[in-house]
Amino acid sequence: MSEACIKLSFFFNKLPDVSYEHFYKHYGHVHADLTVGTKAFGQFNIQRYTQHHATPEMREKLRSIGMSVLDWDACSTLWVKSWEDAERFFGSPEYSKLADDCKHFMDTSNGIPCMAG
Question: EthD domain: from which residue to which, for each copy (predicted)?
Fold first, then answer.
């Protein structure tokens, strides 16, 4: 991919009553498949979708080597070619279905912090 992309990263935690095992399994399989399988994913030029699973073991390892650790269980990053593509993707009916899926495993009670770069 030679063209520059806008990278949108979303940070979130699991629901308090959901196990880490269920959280990472649902996030890594069900939610990921729903995301890349949407018509809007291709239609609006989403270039890449990645997930970072910050397991308790990984966070503890970071602490043990003296790192300051972000307090998130996971991060999703979407690569888009333009802000217009992002706006159309987030405004699509398919994105609403993704947001509905989040209720099964993701704590969105305080919103989902996002970073763009």
Answer: 16-109
C-alpha span between 63 and 75 (Å, rounded): 19
pLDDT at 2 over 70: no
Euclidean distance between CA atoms 88 and 95, whole angstroms: 10
- What are the tens digits of pLDDT across the range 57-106? 999 999 999 999 999 999 999 999 999 999 999 999 988 888 889 999 99
Characterize the bridge pairing of strands 46-53 and 74-80. Answer: antiparallel
CATH number of the domain where residue 77 is located: 3.30.70.100
Indicate whether 97 belongs to any domain. yes
- The SS3 of residue 2 is coil
Task: For residues 95 and 36, give the distance between their C-alpha atoms in angstroms, rounded to a whole number.
Answer: 11
Tell me whether residue 78 is in a domain. Answer: yes
